[in-house]
Automatic annotation (TrEMBL):
<dbReference type="InterPro" id="IPR001401">
    <property type="entry name" value="Dynamin_GTPase"/>
</dbReference>
<dbReference type="InterPro" id="IPR045063">
    <property type="entry name" value="Dynamin_N"/>
</dbReference>
<feature type="domain" description="Dynamin-type G">
    <location>
        <begin position="31"/>
        <end position="299"/>
    </location>
</feature>
<keyword id="KW-0505">Motor protein</keyword>
<dbReference type="GO" id="GO:0003924">
    <property type="term" value="F:GTPase activity"/>
</dbReference>
<dbReference type="GO" id="GO:0016020">
    <property type="term" value="C:membrane"/>
</dbReference>
<dbReference type="InterPro" id="IPR003130">
    <property type="entry name" value="GED"/>
</dbReference>
<dbReference type="GO" id="GO:0005525">
    <property type="term" value="F:GTP binding"/>
</dbReference>
<dbReference type="GO" id="GO:0005874">
    <property type="term" value="C:microtubule"/>
</dbReference>
<keyword id="KW-0378">Hydrolase</keyword>
<keyword id="KW-0206">Cytoskeleton</keyword>
<dbReference type="InterPro" id="IPR000375">
    <property type="entry name" value="Dynamin_stalk"/>
</dbReference>
<protein>
    <submittedName>
        <fullName>Dynamin-related protein 1A-like</fullName>
    </submittedName>
</protein>
<keyword id="KW-0963">Cytoplasm</keyword>
<dbReference type="GO" id="GO:0051301">
    <property type="term" value="P:cell division"/>
</dbReference>
<keyword id="KW-0493">Microtubule</keyword>
<feature type="domain" description="GED">
    <location>
        <begin position="517"/>
        <end position="609"/>
    </location>
</feature>
């Protein structure tokens, strides 16, 4: 069972090294899940004396006002033999055999964190004491509760101390050691008051009564110690500490323990309780209870650690790996991230991801609808037909069919198709840009490097812009080709006037009558509709060839070509990372190491049991 306390000690030390000491943090915290014993008491309650009695050494700072201004995690390790010594976690290679030096180091380390302003801090000091005269136990000594700030301390320190103490003891894994002086009314005890707030049923509170020997003559603490005045789940334990005169004379702690045993054994009021009184008994009870609690928490702790490891690994994966130091490594990272983006973009076009279907919507709905909305009636009005045919004939009227007039009418109508054709190119370009932006947002690695994200986005948009211009040129060429060369077979199949009984000798002016012009307009409209049907098929093919397929084939080719010419400094600039992300990754990696180490330690102890 002693291995369990050592295990928690080791994990607590690692937590503090990582800055995980249970305060508010965006990081998962292991500290809060570890069972611990927090020592709570008001000033002058005898809290320091109780701890020193358990340890058997005089090592805590003393003085007026608030002396304990940082939590002190006191880890006691029982050794079989040898000289007693102490170690601080912040001084790992230094052993203290002089406990007066331990006291001074606690004060100095407190000032290093809080300054000499007498403020407080929640960052704990870790002190390990190795002695044959202790039990395996871990205690957290919290600042003493007070009602008045002394000179030189911040005005809000009274509330700050209460908030810190409450933050520690309200956690369900915290065992509360509530220190109360017997020579004061228990109803005014600061320790009992705050313990009752967080543990109203007294299920995790141990009551310790100090200064029993200083009670007024004729009074005793039997009602409290037997649980009649204030009942807790665990029996109250009374202790007799050294007096101030004993402390001033540096009375040996071992001798003080002996006198404490003699006091309870010889006192008529407490003789019947003597076997469960005293600081030695308190240490044994707390050690045994802590072992039981730790053992009961191990399954839940293992589950929490496994779950947190998965969460940490997932977030680290999302944040990406640290940047390589050499230029080749940086270039490789940039290429891999860019290819990831390119692959996501292709998946959108190929239907693996959504978005590509919008392009078909342009070809199947938007473009045909735009063609249907073209108002050829304006081009083929009677007045416009008569005007264009007359102008095309010039001084010599046409003999059979107004060929030049036909050409002009067809050209003026087909030119209208350029508008829907350009609009289709622009619509597909807009969709491709949206898909590129969506792909950038979906490329997790690009979030890690904002400069690279901007560069890849600009490169993709520039490529799409070039493809759009090429597509527009090719698409409009299709329209221009239809304008520049008419399909002769269409006109050869048209019935001639003479075959319809027409009389070529009729007056020239009769050739421009409404019936004749309507037939010309009808023929032109049929031809234009035939061309529209042809272009409705050809223009989507041109757009896909020039824009969609090219975007799939070589969206970032120009960017990759430029990368090869960049210097190491320029590559490094592309991989400039948000400092907050770098710090977050480092913190997560260290925390993941802590959790994995804790997992191995706990599993080793669990298997050994």
């Amino acid at each position: 069972m002693e291995n369990l306390i050592s295990l928690v000690n080791k994990i607590q030390r690692a937590c503090t090294a990582l800055g995980d000491h249970g305060d508010e943090s965006a990081m998962p915290t292991l500290w809060d899940s570890l069972p611990s014993i927090a020592v709570v008491g008001g000033q002058s309650s005898g809290k320091s004396s109780v701890l020193e009695s358990i340890v058997g050494k005089d090592f805590l700072p003393r003085g007026s006002g608030i002396v304990t201004r940082r939590p002190l995690v006191l880890q006691l390790h029982k050794i079989d033999e040898g000289k007693e010594y102490a170690e601080f976690m912040h001084l790992p290679r230094k052993r203290f055999t002089d406990f007066a030096a331990v006291r001074k180091e606690i004060s100095d380390e407190t000032d290093r964190e809080t300054g000499r302003s007498k403020g407080i801090s929640s960052v704990p000091i870790h002190l390990s004491i190795f002695s044959p005269n202790v039990v395996n136990l871990t205690l957290v000594d919290l600042p003493g509760l007070t009602k008045v700030a002394v000179e030189g301390q911040p005005e809000g320190i009274v509330q700050d101390i209460e908030d810190m103490v409450r933050a520690f003891i309200e956690k369900p894994n915290c065992i509360i050691l509530a220190i109360s002086p017997a020579n004061q009314d228990l109803a005014t005890s600061d320790a009992i008051k705050i313990s009752r707030e967080v543990d109203p049923k007294g299920e995790r509170t141990f009551g310790v009564l100090t200064k029993i020997d200083l009670m007024d003559q004729g009074t005793n603490a039997v009602d409290i110690l037997e649980g009649r005045s204030y009942k807790l789940q665990f029996p109250w334990i009374g202790v007799v500490n050294r007096s101030q005169a004993d402390i001033n004379k540096s009375v040996d702690m071992i001798a003080a323990r002996r006198r404490e045993r003699e006091y309870f054994a010889s006192s008529s009021e407490y003789r019947h309780l003597g076997n469960r009184m005293g600081s030695e008994h308190l240490g044994r009870v707390l050690s045994k209870h802590l072992e039981v609690v730790i053992k009961s928490r191990i399954p839940g702790l293992q589950s929490l650690i496994s779950k947190t490891i998965g969460e940490l690994e997932s977030e680290l994966s999302r944040l990406g790996k640290p940047i390589a130091a050499d230029a080749g490594g940086k270039l490789y990272v940039i290429m891999e991230i860019s290819r990831t983006f390119d692959q996501i973009f292709k998946e959108h076009l190929d239907g693996v991801r959504s978005g590509g279907e919008k392009i078909y919507g342009v070809f199947d709905n938007q473009f045909p609808a735009a063609l249907k909305r073209l108002q050829f009636d304006k081009q083929l009005s009677m007045d416009n037909i008569r005007k264009l045919i007359t102008e095309a004939d010039g001084y010599q009227p046409h003999l059979i069919a107004p060929e030049q007039g036909y050409r002009r009418l067809i050209e003026s109508s087909l030119i209208c198709i350029r508008g829907p054709a350009e609009a289709a190119v622009d619509a597909v370009h807009g969709i491709l840009k949206d898909l590129a932006q969506k792909s950038i947002n979906e490329t997790t690695e690009l979030k890690q490097y904002p400069p690279l994200r901007v560069e890849v986005a600009n490169a993709a948009f520039e490529s799409l812009e070039r493809m759009k211009e090429e597509s527009k040129r090719a698409t409009l060429q299709l329209v221009d080709m239809e304008c520049g060369y008419l399909t002769v077979d269409f006109f050869r199949k048209l019935p001639q006037d003479i075959e319809k009984g027409g009389n070529p000798t009729v007056s020239l002016f009769d050739r421009y009558n409404d019936s004749y012009l309507r037939r010309v307009g009808h023929n032109v409209l049929n031809y234009v509709n035939m061309v529209c049907s042809s272009l409705r098929i050809a223009i989507p093919k041109s757009i896909v060839h020039c824009q969609v397929r090219e975007a799939k084939r070589c969206l970032l080719d120009h960017f990759f070509a430029e990368l090869g010419a960049k210097e190491a400094r320029q590559l490094a600039k592309l991989l400039d990372e948000d400092p907050a992300v770098m710090q977050r990754r480092t913190s997560l990696a260290r925390r993941l190491e802590l959790y994995r180490s804790a997992q191995s330690e706990i599993e080793a102890v669990a298997w050994s049991k």
